[in-house]
């Protein structure tokens, strides 16, 4: 691990690693503020993928030949690197590579939920979950007869912890909570919630899709039983995600998908499962993406995750303050003082979020509009959609100024 400091980032230097940021549309610079959806990919990560295809493209875990050995070692080592990055002392055995956070979530739902839940059991989750978690638990609940309970949010978009303590009981078998909300920017007290769950004999699943890319995360300090995130939101490629699980829990779980690679011994009658984590990675995996996730982690670690977090918080505060200057803009979620991740979702009175996103796009500014896969949360906020600007290591205050100016243009157009 690099020496972590909170010195400001050398953003100009970082931007040079991302050729896509040089794009212009009719002479207008791209201002990419849709990082909660996916982040851009720096050259060392792209190079890693190219090196793989140019140098040692082969299937993993099956060939004796040199290329296959090289690919296998690199792919396996990437699991260890992820474990180190998130503080999983069990190493690769606690790190399953999936396609994305959504698949990690489904793995837990199928392999754990369908076997462990039944009528009378409860899954406690929150009102700010992404559909990846919410829809999946709904399906598991339907198939097992378990109930889902929701920890409500308060006016500021933070969890009502008094309600959480009431809702988590001895009937709770799983607490499932998002670490950083992709809509509100709320940073949830996941460690405290995991402690409450454990006091009642329940497990804790944490959706870290917006957390691992933006702050130091230590799954053991949180004491999460499961923790999920996606490579493509942290400078990595699409097609690789992670499910961390405590070793003894993964050990006892049945596989989710079956086939080659996940078995140790097969007869016509039955099969014995492979060691962790391969038991959960059947078939040919996303090899180059897995290897490139290590390159993405090296890239972020070189910058230092504490500095990434400080940069995110600085930009979130700046955007919050600049957008708050206007009375016709409503921002959702906590104030910067209450703590928020590097994104700001908002609505402007006179302009629908989709129109806003389309108009600011004419000024080269890429933001997201819609429900951000949190429809029930938007229902609770009383809106169908919101506009969202989300930041990363290569964004600047000037780019937020460009957003605010583009929003001004939209306001005038619709006045
Ligand atoms: N959980 C959270 C908190 C997320 O923000 C996302 C993606 C997911 C799960 C699912 O991740 P995936 O990699 O499996 O797709 N969120 C968003 C978003 O906010 N805009 O686009 C994708």
Characterization of this structure:
- By secondary structure, the protein is an alpha/beta fold.
- The protein has helices at residues 11-15, 43-55, 66-86, 101-116, 131-144, 161-167, 190-199, 219-222, 247-252, 287-303, 305-324, 353-362, 375-381, 397-414, and strands at residues 24-25, 28-29, 31-32, 95-98, 122-126, 147-151, 172-178, 203-207, 226-230, 241-245, 263-266, 271-273, 329-331, 343-348, 365-366, 368-370, 386-390.
- It folds into two domains: 11-41 and 304-413, Aspartate Aminotransferase, domain 1 (Alpha-Beta Complex), CATH 3.90.1150; 46-301, Type I PLP-dependent aspartate aminotransferase-like (Major domain) (Aspartate Aminotransferase, domain 2).
- Helices cover 40% and strands 16% of the residues.
- The strands form five sheets. Strands 4-10-9-8-7-5-6 form a seven-stranded mixed sheet, with helices on both faces.
- Strand 11 (263-266) and strand 12 form a beta hairpin.
- The N and C termini lie far apart (52 Å).
- Ligand 7TS binds next to helix 4.
- Ligand 7TS binds at residues 36-37, 100-102, 130, 132, 178, 182, 207, 209-210, 230, 368, 372-373.
